[in-house]
Design a protein that fits this description.
The protein has one domain: P-loop containing nucleotide triphosphate hydrolases (Rossmann fold), CATH 3.40.50.300. About 45% of the residues lie in helices and about 10% in strands. It has a five-stranded parallel beta sheet, with helices on both faces. The protein is extended. The chain starts with about 20 loop residues before the first helix and ends in a 5-residue tail after the last helix. About 20% of the residues are buried.
Length: about 300
């Protein structure tokens, strides 16, 4: 059993955080937008479109949680999340873009890149994982490549999630204290704190060279994750001329009468009924608490009154 997460104490940094969007209002609008995303999915399938959405930004800026909300009601066979690991030795010898191009969608598909070829403009540049020659070649080739993709009919949307240094540090601390989310942190993530300005310069250079009319960058203010998700999804929808595909009406057929099939005795290995064990333990806990409460009341009644 996992203990409940204790409430965190407020820090001075919390006072500088922007007001969060009202939760009920956020959930209602998010659900409405997700319904529109389902329409987009069916439109992409019907028309044979190819849609690529690039999510970039600083560590802990909320890219992953936004992708989760975008794809929550979509068919994973249509909308694929691309989050590539470190390149293999063989991939390092290939053209830099090659392993990303392998992930581009076919007709009727959507690809969401949780970080993308823009790794070279950010972490690789700042951490020295590429040479200056490789970096300059990337800045030169990227606009050419993206123009070719768009010219070929691919719809490319690029989002940069912007988060303040104070909010990023607060999220890092929250992850450090949460055993369920510590896996999200790596030494490289933490080093981004000490290299904040280096990443800022790298991002500025990236925007200058790759913000092209055919594939512009769209910046998402992400200090409030709720607002960031709502704003990003609403903007994405506004850039697509989709329509609601009329699906043929469906009806459940009547179940045919039995033909005499009899289920054989249960055999094989079944998983244990862990749910029943949890329910029994919960019932025992409640009974023990009730008994303790009753005893406490009994002792109070037995006291002499003066």
């Amino acid at each position: 059993m996992v203990d409940a997460k204790p409430p965190q104490e407020k820090t001075p940094a919390d006072a500088d955080r922007p007001a969060r969007m009202n939760r009920l209002l956020y959930e209602a609008e998010l659900y409405r937008l997700q319904a529109e995303l389902v329409k987009v999915q069916e439109w992409v399938k019907t028309e044979g479109h190819r849609l690529v959405i690039v999510f970039e930004g600083r560590d802990a800026a909320g890219k992953g949680s936004t992708i989760k909300r975008v794809t929550e009601y979509l068919n994973p066979r249509v909308a694929r999340i691309i989050a590539l690991p470190t390149p293999t030795e063989r991939q390092r010898t290939q053209w830099y873009f090659q392993r990303y191009l392998d992930q581009l969608p076919a007709a009727g598909e959507i690809a969401l890149f949780d970080r993308s070829w823009y790794n070279r403009a950010g972490v690789e540049r700042v951490m020295g994982f590429c040479t200056n020659e490789e970096y300059q070649r990337f800045l030169h080739q990227t606009p050419i490549l993206e123009r070719l993709l768009v010219e070929d009919g691919l719809m490319l949307r690029k989002y940069w999630f912007s988060v303040s240094d104070a909010e990023q540090e607060r999220r890092f601390r929250s992850r450090l204290e949460d055993p369920m989310r510590q896996w999200k942190l790596s030494p490289m993530d933490l080093e981004s704190i000490t290299r904040w300005e280096d990443y800022s310069r790298a991002k500025d250079q990236m925007i200058v060279h790759t913000d092209i009319p055919e594939a512009p960058w769209f910046v998402v203010e992400a200090d409030d994750k709720r607002r960031a998700r709502i704003n990003m999804i609403a903007h994405l929808l506004s850039t697509l001329t989709y329509y609601e595909v009329q699906r043929p009406p469906l009806a459940l057929p009547p179940r045919p009468p039995s033909t005499g099939y009899l289920r054989p005795p249960r055999e094989g290995t079944y998983v244990p009924d862990h749910a029943a064990a949890v329910e029994q333990a919960d019932a025992r806990d409640k009974a023990a608490k009730a008994e303790k409460t009753a005893k406490g009341k009994g002792k109070g009644k037995g006291k002499d009154r003066s």
